[in-house]
Each structure stands twice: as structure tokens, then as C-alpha cells.
Amino acid sequence: MNEKAIELVDTVRYIADRGWSPATGGNYSVRIDEQHCLITQSGIDKASLTEDDLMVCNLDGQSEQPGLIPSAEAALHTALYRADHGIGAVLHTHSVNATVLSRASGKRIVITGYEMQKALSGNKTHAESIEFYIFDNNQDIPALANRVIEEFPQQPGFLVRGHGLYAWGSSVAEARRHVEGFEFLFACLWQERLLGR
Ligand SMILES: [Zn+2]
């Protein structure tokens, strides 16, 4: 469990250093067994995150540590873990590119032709068309989680409109690669739109 905590803290600080998790926004978790995950506590500055800022939460989204409050979006993390046993980590960022692109798009973004598509597990070539799903934001996190699970995204992540990115992987390392791939692609897509393409 300690190794997973160290890996998660390292990744969250890396993400915060890139400006993808400002103002205590975003939340991050790693599965520790079939019933539990470690998740960031509510309201913590991610740039200075330590292992003491993580807590154990069960996969119903409830705190296993009296007095500690998990992120307000814990229910979305735990719904993903329950829906797919292969998910080992969930990373949720609040980047500018994800926020702007999601507000300027419909329910889906279809992309093709980017080498970076291969950073997302399951994609072997730039030549395929792949879809990013966008869900409308909702302060009722269990309701948002139900929508996501019903329409389960094809790619290892999705956008929440005006809010940010959720990405996952079988491990923290894979989830981190997915965040980097998504963020790169969002930056490209936004710059292409500015160019009128
Ligand atoms: Zn959020």
C-alpha cells in the first residue's frame, strides 16, 4: 500500500506542476484491493500533496477513516472501480485545455491522424478514428457516475463539460500516461480550432 501511495503522490505532484490541477481542484486515487482505494482528501493543495493527504475509502465511496473526508467526487472514482475490475488508478484533472474544449464541443469529439492516439491503451495506429465522450457537469456526483457507467467510454477517460478530465489505467503509471496523452491531444485540438481547422 505504501508503494502505491508514493507512486500516486509523485504523479499528482507531476500533474500539479504542469498546471493541470490548480486551486485544490482535481482528485486522484489508486485501488488497494477489491474493496478499497486510497484517495485524496477533500480540499488539499495538489502541488504540495503528501502521503498523509491520502485516505482509505471503500468502493461504495465511504470513508474508512473516521474524521477524514474523501474528495467530493469519490463516488465517481469508486463507480469506475466497481464497473471495471481492471481499473487500478483514476486521475481527475482540471486543465485549461480540457475545460475550454469541453465547453466548445458537443457530446462527442472524433479524432484521427494523431500519433499520440497510441498513448491511449488499445490504440495501435494514428489511422483509426477514436471518440472522446463529454458528459454534462453535475454537482450530483452519483447521478453523473450513473451516466458515465451507462454509456461507458470507449477510451480510458472522458471529459466533464466546463470541468475537466477523468482518466484511468490498470496502474498509476498507465493512468498517468493516459492523462499526458489526453492533455497533449486536447492542446492540439484547441490550437487547431484557433487556426480555424
Ligand atoms: Zn473536479
3D architecture notes:
With 197 residues, this protein is α+β, with helices and mostly antiparallel strands. It has 5 helices and 8 strands; from the N terminus they run H-E-E-E-H-E-H-E-E-H-E-E-H. It has helices spanning 2-17, 74-83, 96-103, 141-150, 172-194, and strands at residues 27-31, 36-40, 54-58, 89-93, 108-111, 130-135, 157-160, 164-169. The chain has an 8-stranded mixed beta sheet, sandwiched between helices. Helix 2 (74-83) runs parallel beside helix 4 and helix 3 (96-103) packs across helix 5. The chain is globular, with a radius of gyration of 16 Å. Bound molecules: zinc ion. Residues 25-26, 73, 92, 94, 163-164 line the site of zinc ion.
**Total helical elements:** 5
Q: What distance separates the N and C termini? A: 47 Å
| Each distinct ligand | zinc ion
* Beta-strand content estimate: 15-25%
In terms of topology, how is this protein built?
Blueprint: H1 2-17, E1 27-31, E2 36-40, E3 54-58, H2 74-83, E4 89-93, H3 96-103, E5 108-111, E6 130-135, H4 141-150, E7 157-160, E8 164-169, H5 172-194
Parallel strand pairs: 6-7
Antiparallel strand pairs: 1-2, 1-4, 2-3, 4-8, 5-6, 7-8
Bound molecules: zinc ion.
Features:
binds zinc ion, 5 helices, alpha+beta, 197 residues, 34% helix
Please give a quick description of this structure.
With 197 residues, the chain is α+β, with helices and mostly antiparallel strands. It has helices at residues 2-17, 74-83, 96-103, 141-150, 172-194, and strands at 27-31, 36-40, 54-58, 89-93, 108-111, 130-135, 157-160, 164-169. The chain is globular and about 50 Å long.
